[in-house]
């Protein structure tokens, strides 16, 4: 094994700095919360500020080094997270696959890792990839999270849930960085789930009221469906190839520019491509609120403005598109999936543009505007315009974040302007809609107001029948148990079981 | 058979037995609690010693045919019954410290409000039985111990003036079926421990008629639908601590590993796996519509227990490893979850899930532990259950893709149910308390130590997965030897034993 050069050592150190900078706040804030030793607002702010600066600086230096050295892909392999070898399975003779282009620190681990592949073992590798897709995403994550975090330090000053917000925010940053830099589908899935949990919990941030909580649960439910699809895709990849490494599945080779992102040589059959591709598309649809899952996006606006900005304007809502970009070589092998992605993207874009026109609050209008762009991005990915989609994501995320964090002051500013000019500002939307035939307007208005009936459809035809059936079974089970117990009714919470008079008072509000 | 260096197995069984005798003589509740705590801690030390001793044994000196069976070094049972009764192997070795730790933490986290209604002597007795169960491979002894383990909840239900019919009926049926099954095994001359006792002896697999009663008993003990009503009844009527300890170590899964898995025909195994998968999905759905936290917890547990049973029946190396990993992680995370629920109940009484309770501000640490342990139980990334859940799904897909989808759907429903109940219990409104009802130090130690294990195990899963994979290989090896021997002795028209194929399928990861 050749000795590690300075630049390779530097890559490894910087890569670890990126990862540790995103993970450290989670452990510090999470440990403090579990031990009921909350940090002060200033300490929390400094911790997150430092982590963001370190992560962002390291990411930018990696990008600069890659550009200077002409490296298109840098892998950081930390070894196998899980590695089990089956008995009676002889290891293959001869050396493993060449491990050039990989940092020498990780080379040994990778060689073992690839030998293990040949032996047919089961493993989860901890591998991160810095390439033309992941580095811009990581830089965007740190930049926008840093900006919005700085905004939130003031926005949430002395809020009761300040610590909770920043703990969830730290989880989100970690999830985004893991997802962006993931070199295996398991790592990506871990980050994906962290983003989902923190999103749902932040939607329910104002937890003293029932509406945000209900909406948070709705977001979580859709995310779980999306997660299930991604988990199945992960298992399918494992099942087909014995590992979940992107470079092997998508045929990336760092020395060959044609095979690094967005290129690749995905060695799957048509059937396998369709299976994994549609599962990934379902996962992306849930995460990016594509049709038919679009209903959760306006609900997610119940959260505080900083989280809405960074989650649904900038980062989280683009994760579905990122997933499709990461698996773009697979889309090339499965044109049917690409065609469905185009159709889904365009339909979502049209739907969001229509629904966004009738929203009565600024955050919902922005969320649908955001969705219409996400739909276009997904269509671009389906059409094979990968760099255009990446640039579209970066530009749109920055622009929408600015709009979201500007939104709280917008109404106040409008009021001031109207007071100054002494009349209402002109409503441009109504004039622009004049091209729509009159007989269609009310129908379209109703359709848009009801958000395309998507939520109602899912609720009435899927959720409620399922719950009704389960409640019927529950009632039947109770009757059966009571019959066996010889008691006519379900056991009450007996007096003996109840504790002494409860010290808990009635709700304050 | 190899000996441990010290009689850890005998001590892990006798120490809680002695503790139960002393605790039963204590008139003061506080004294009984202290005694129980001391003896439970000593049991943890003995079980931990057993585990350390086991993993540091020199396996190279062990004959291959013994399949790494290890016993204590007193050999008392050999003088009494002619065979070693307390024997551990790679499957059971970590289960003893795990179970003893769960008992210790449950006793530790028993608050003063709950102590008068919680039988410490009975709990120590139950601990002794559980230790003996996990140290036993002998069918007769195992059947007796599994039946004895059901007595503590029955006695407690009686002491609380609650009807015992549902629980006693199910457990009675399970005990009877185990008895019938063991009689049938004895009648057919089936020896389940041929390699340990008589290397090279002829193996014999039981007939379907002999295995069916045992299978049914295992399904009842595992809480497989529609034979699961005892579990909901126990959680509703019994003390929550006792109910948690009755189900958390998952003795039903242990019975499946010892009495069914090594020699059951493939068809039997598939049926059991299918029924267990249906239960996992059904119980996950039922958890969504519960209006009481206890019943919700019960269904969550039943779903996990069924997932583990389903994984055990896949008889592939990955599926089995996933099931064994999930066994440990579910036991830890669901105990943490149950103890959190118990801590909440001890402060505000039984709660309803029909409206928001808004307890977050009153007990933020408990809220965090509730969410963490609940998500860990459903295999959230970064927790102990993540890798096990993924391996289980992978094993299921290699058996039947629909099985994999069912497991993923069950996990998704469980995840939704956990967050749903979290939001109902802790959010939606604000409840203020006139006195402090925050988590106590004892509870904090119990719950946070479990949470730390869950997170640390999730950070370094290889420490857990590696040994569990060896255990899975050992189970498959035993099954392979049974089926190989059977196929040698069966006439040619009999379909060739498919265990080697299954084994090969489990081992061949790449197409």
Q: Shape of chain A from CA axes?
A: globular
Rg calculated over all Cα atoms of chain B: 22 Å
Number of helices of chain A: 19
- Share of residues in strands of chain A: 5-15%
Order of strands across the biggest sheet of chain A? 1-2
The largest inter-chain interface, given as chain pair and residues per side, is: A-B, 81 and 89 residues
Overall pLDDT level of chain A: 83
**Main β-sheet description of chain B:** 3 strands, mixed
Secondary-structure blueprint of this entry?
The complex is a heterodimer of chains A (509) and B (511).
Chain A: H1 6-34, H2 41-69, E1 73-84, H3 104-119, E2 122-131, H4 134-155, H5 162-181, H6 185-203, H7 210-241, H8 246-250, H9 270-287, H10 296-299, H11 305-314, H12 319-326, H13 328-333, H14 335-356, H15 362-382, H16 386-421, H17 428-432, H18 438-449, H19 454-485, E3 504-507
Antiparallel strand pairs in A: 1-2
Helix pairs in contact in A: 1-2, 1-5, 2-4, 4-5, 4-11, 4-16, 5-6, 6-7, 7-9, 9-12, 11-15, 11-16, 12-15, 14-15, 14-18, 15-16
Chain B: E1 2-3, H1 8-25, H2 29-55, E2 70-71, H3 76-81, E3 87-88, H4 95-108, H5 120-134, H6 139-148, H7 151-159, H8 165-188, H9 194-197, H10 208-221, H11 229-237, H12 240-247, H13 251-260, H14 266-288, H15 293-312, H16 317-348, H17 364-377, H18 385-399, H19 401-426, E4 431-433, H20 441-459, H21 462-489, H22 499-507
Parallel strand pairs in B: 1-2
Antiparallel strand pairs in B: 2-3
Helix pairs in contact in B: 1-2, 1-5, 2-4, 2-5, 4-5, 4-16, 5-6, 6-8, 8-10, 8-11, 10-13, 11-12, 11-15, 12-16, 14-15, 14-19, 15-16, 15-19, 16-17, 16-18, 16-20, 16-21, 17-19, 17-20, 18-19
